[in-house]
Specification:
65% of the residues lie in helices and 5% in strands. The protein has four helices and two strands. Helix 1 packs across helix 3.
Protein backbone atom coordinates (compact mmCIF):
# COMPACT_ATOMS: atom_id res chain seq x y z
CA UNK A 1 0.00 0.00 0.00
CA UNK A 2 1.64 3.27 -1.06
CA UNK A 3 2.00 5.80 1.72
CA UNK A 4 3.56 8.65 -0.27
CA UNK A 5 3.27 10.12 -3.76
CA UNK A 6 5.46 12.66 -5.53
CA UNK A 7 4.27 15.92 -7.05
CA UNK A 8 4.99 14.80 -10.63
CA UNK A 9 2.53 11.91 -10.27
CA UNK A 10 -0.18 14.17 -8.86
CA UNK A 11 0.40 16.72 -11.63
CA UNK A 12 0.21 14.05 -14.34
CA UNK A 13 -3.06 12.70 -12.91
CA UNK A 14 -4.51 16.22 -12.61
CA UNK A 15 -3.57 16.97 -16.20
CA UNK A 16 -5.49 13.89 -17.37
CA UNK A 17 -8.55 14.92 -15.33
CA UNK A 18 -8.36 18.46 -16.74
CA UNK A 19 -8.22 17.18 -20.32
CA UNK A 20 -11.17 14.83 -19.63
CA UNK A 21 -13.23 17.81 -18.43
CA UNK A 22 -12.33 19.79 -21.56
CA UNK A 23 -13.32 16.84 -23.74
CA UNK A 24 -16.68 16.59 -21.97
CA UNK A 25 -17.34 20.24 -22.82
CA UNK A 26 -16.22 19.71 -26.41
CA UNK A 27 -13.29 22.11 -25.98
CA UNK A 28 -10.63 19.53 -26.76
CA UNK A 29 -8.33 19.59 -29.76
CA UNK A 30 -5.72 17.30 -31.31
CA UNK A 31 -2.87 18.69 -29.17
CA UNK A 32 -4.77 17.95 -25.95
CA UNK A 33 -5.71 14.48 -27.19
CA UNK A 34 -2.04 13.74 -27.91
CA UNK A 35 -1.06 15.13 -24.50
CA UNK A 36 -3.53 12.79 -22.79
CA UNK A 37 -2.30 9.73 -24.69
CA UNK A 38 1.36 10.37 -23.85
CA UNK A 39 2.96 9.43 -20.55
CA UNK A 40 3.84 12.89 -19.25
CA UNK A 41 5.34 11.82 -15.92
CA UNK A 42 8.99 12.05 -17.00
CA UNK A 43 8.49 15.42 -18.70
CA UNK A 44 6.71 16.85 -15.67
CA UNK A 45 9.40 15.45 -13.37
CA UNK A 46 12.15 17.05 -15.48
CA UNK A 47 10.35 20.40 -15.31
CA UNK A 48 9.80 20.30 -11.54
CA UNK A 49 13.04 18.90 -10.13
CA UNK A 50 15.59 21.44 -11.46
CA UNK A 51 13.59 24.28 -9.94
CA UNK A 52 13.23 22.41 -6.65
CA UNK A 53 9.45 22.06 -6.97
CA UNK A 54 9.20 18.30 -6.57
CA UNK A 55 7.91 17.17 -3.19
CA UNK A 56 6.57 14.07 -1.53
CA UNK A 57 3.00 14.13 -0.26
CA UNK A 58 1.34 11.82 2.24
CA UNK A 59 -2.38 11.38 2.78
CA UNK A 60 -3.82 13.17 5.80
CA UNK A 61 -4.78 9.86 7.41
CA UNK A 62 -1.21 8.46 7.15
CA UNK A 63 -0.85 7.90 10.91
CA UNK A 64 -3.96 5.71 11.02
CA UNK A 65 -2.87 3.84 7.88
CA UNK A 66 0.55 3.05 9.35
CA UNK A 67 -0.97 1.83 12.63
CA UNK A 68 -3.45 -0.37 10.75
CA UNK A 69 -0.77 -1.80 8.43
CA UNK A 70 1.50 -2.49 11.41
CA UNK A 71 -1.32 -4.35 13.14
CA UNK A 72 -2.01 -6.47 10.06
CA UNK A 73 1.67 -7.38 9.66
CA UNK A 74 2.03 -8.15 13.37
CA UNK A 75 -1.03 -10.42 13.33
CA UNK A 76 0.26 -12.21 10.25
CA UNK A 77 3.63 -12.84 11.90
CA UNK A 78 1.98 -14.02 15.13
CA UNK A 79 -0.34 -16.40 13.28
CA UNK A 80 2.50 -17.86 11.21
CA UNK A 81 4.65 -18.45 14.29
CA UNK A 82 1.81 -20.06 16.24
CA UNK A 83 1.31 -22.59 13.44
CA UNK A 84 4.84 -23.97 13.88
Amino acid sequence: MPTVVDLATITDDCLDIFIDKLQEKGESNDKLNKLKEDDNYEGIKEALIPDGYNMIVTPKEIDDLIVNMGSVVARGINMSLQQC
